[in-house]
Amino acid sequence: MELYVVKEGDSVDSIAAAHSISAEDVIWANQIEYPYRLAVGQALLILSGSGTESQGRPALYSFGYAYPFINSRTLQDTLPFLTDLYVFSYGFTEEGNLVHPMSDDAWMIEAAKNAGVRPVLTLTPLGADGKFNNNLVSALVQDPAIQQHLIWELGRTMQERGFMGLDIDFEYILAEDRVGFVEFVSLVRSVMNSFGYPVTVALAPKTSADQKGLLYEGVDYRLLGQAADRVMLMTYEWGYSQGPPMAVAPLNMVRRVVNYAVSEIPREKISLGIPNYGYDWPLPYEQGVTRARTIHNLEAIQIAVDHGVQIQFDTTAMSPYFRYWQYGIQHEVWFEDPRSILAKFELIQEYDLTGAGYWQLMNFFRSNWLMMRELFQVIKM
Fold first, then answer.
1. What is the mean pLDDT of the chain?
2. Annotated catalytic residue 286
3. Active-site annotation holder among 171, 217, 264, 336
4. pTM, two decimal places
C-alpha cells in the first residue's frame, strides 16, 4: 500500500506505469471517473499485488451510521467492511413512545444480516424540527416511568425488527442531567445485555473533564465509559456548516480528545469517529450568515478538477483543502482523502483503540475501506 500525490503532468497511465500496476487498478481503487482527469495535489491510493494475509493485523470494530434512504448499491458495497450497521435513527416523545424513521428500514436490517453485519438501532432525542432536543433528554432521565416505558418499546421493536444492538446518540445534554443520563445508560445496558444486545454511546469530543459548553457539560467520560459496552468519540465537526472554514476533523484536535478519553475510559472500549464528508464554504465567511454546503469526498476532488485548482494539504490538521472561484464568488473546501484517513488509522493504532465509526455511510469511499482492509482485521459477528 502506497499513497501517491499527483504532480503536474501526471496521468493515470503514467502513474500506473511508474508503479507497475494497471491503469484500471488505479481508477478502481480511487473511483476516478471518465475521462480520468486528475487534480494536482490529489492523493491516490496505490495497491500492488493481492495484499497480505489478515492474520497478525489488529482487530477492528468497524461501523457507521446510515439513513434508511441510503442507495442500495452503496450499502451493499460498504457492508463487507463493517462489523455493525447503525440505522439512523429512532426518536422518542416526552411520554417515552418510540418514534420510527420516516423511511422503512427493514431492507437495511435484512441486507446487514445477510452480509454478516449486526444491525443496530440508533436512539436519538431529535425533535420535530430534526434537531437535538435537550428537553426530551431531561424529561426522560428525570422520570423512571418514562424510562421503563421507552426501554420496553425499544426491546419490543428490536425483537420484532431484528436489531442486534442499541446505540444511544444524545447531544446537548444539560449539565444537571449528567448523572441521570449515566444512570439511564446503565439501566438500558443491564436490560439489553440480558437479551444479548450490546449498548454503545456516542460522546461529544471533550478534551478535559471540566470543559465548558452545552455540548460537553452533560457528558461524563468516566461514568459513561463504565455504563456502556463501548463508546464512540464524535471526533468531527470542528469545521461545520455554520462555522468558519477549517478541517472537519483536524488531527491535532482529534489527538487532544483521544488523549483525554484514554485517561478516563478503557482503550478497548473506544472507537474513533471518522467523517465521511467535507464542506464547501462561500467566502468571505460572515458569522451567522455564511452556510457551507455538505459535499462528499469524491465530489470535492471533482470540483478541484473542474476548476483546475491545486489541492493543498495542511500538515497540522492532516487534511486536504483548496480554494476556487465560481460565478464571481470564491469558495474554500475541506474534505477527507487517503492521507487524512491514514492519519486517523495510525492514531487508532498508536493509542491501541479498537474501533472506527463513520458519520456517515451515505457515499461510498473505496480508498478508505481498502486501506482499512490493509491495516486491520475487521471483526465480523
1. 96
2. no
3. 171
4. 0.97
